[in-house]
Specification:
Radius of gyration: 21 Å
Largest sheet: 4 strands, antiparallel
Number of helices: 16
Helix content: 40-55%
Strand order of the largest sheet: 9-10-11-12
Structural class: alpha+beta
Order of helices and strands: HHEHHEEHHEHHEEHHHHEEHHEHEEEH
Shape: globular
CATH topology of the largest domain: Arc Repressor Mutant, subunit A
Number of strands: 12
Mean pLDDT: 94
Low-confidence stretches: none
Strand content: 5-15%
CATH class of the largest domain: Mainly Alpha
CATH superfamily of the largest domain: Winged helix-like DNA-binding domain superfamily/Winged helix DNA-binding domain
Amino acid sequence: MSTGAVDGRRVLAARLAAQRLRSPDLPDVPTAVGHHVAVQGQEFHPALWGLTRRLRADARPGAAGAVAACDRGEVLRTHVLRPTWHLVRPDDARWLLELSAPRVHQANGTLYRQVGTAGHGAETDLVVEAVQERPRTRRELAGLLAAHGRPLEGIALGYVLMRAELDRLLVSGPLDGRQQTYAPFDDRVPPGYGPLGERFDRDAALVELLRRYLASRAYATVKDVAQWSGFTLTDVRRALDLLDDEVVAVPGAGALDGLTLWRLADPGDRVLDPAPLVGALAPDGDPARPVVDLLQSYDELFQSFGESRRIVVADGVDLGDRLGSFIHAVAVDGVVVGRWRWVVGTRDVVVEPQWRRAPSPAEEAAFVAQVDAVRAHWGTLLA
């Protein structure tokens, strides 16, 4: 089934609304993670900041509350989908790993061979045994291996730990000060396969992944989904076939001309009529009342897409440009126009912009308001 063409502005509005960056209504951080299925999270605190922006204003827990949800195991951090960190809910961790671990192992194959990961079974056994006693930091695990005459450091240790995560032996534990820890997977993840039930089925998992991806991303091409998920184009097309009349194909127009995008057949008003929830978008925003978003460096607004990512990035802006550690993205009226960074001290957080064009006075004022929100977010954790 196909419907009328959609241009970049319509798709961007739907994505902002579906991801809850406009008219946010989610109640807590674990719900926000589950809504997105998986959220890229190697930048841990920025990822939590980005998730709190998707919550109702009165439900935002600040940095301390968001970390506490992770410490309690309501949100887990592990390598899944692609060879990078993601935040997931505990009831999604097992089926997502069962589904994606073979692909990630394949992607890691060359580095596994280079660092000898396959030959580090004894090291893996020592690590798994150590975390049974209590969660351990990476530094502690490196020290333990050295004490047993099996020293591993740097990338070699990293890939041994990643492989153990993918094999469902390790997963994130509570923070130890500011350090991430590893804990036994089965201590933090419930039995069974969450929404799939007691048994794993690959087709059912692909369908669950794509259905929830589209529910939170609004519109995407087959290549977008493949880029985000790490699966092949064939896998994505199979999932679309299995979803059958639950999804519809939509031709792109304007900046998306020539692309075929997919959405759920019944996605709700956030996708079908996002304008009342989103308001004006660039380049036609209200000059007197611009909306500034301080997005984390791997925000799902752009990280979820490859082929159609262009609609969220202004001309002349390179999302890969990270000069001077300005790794995060400043968006005005839904479009990235610059970079920003934060420097977190013991008593305060300093936020600095790196505009790629001259901001208007109203945009600078809106940026300052967001800086105040960042400071409020960090508040109790810095007290």
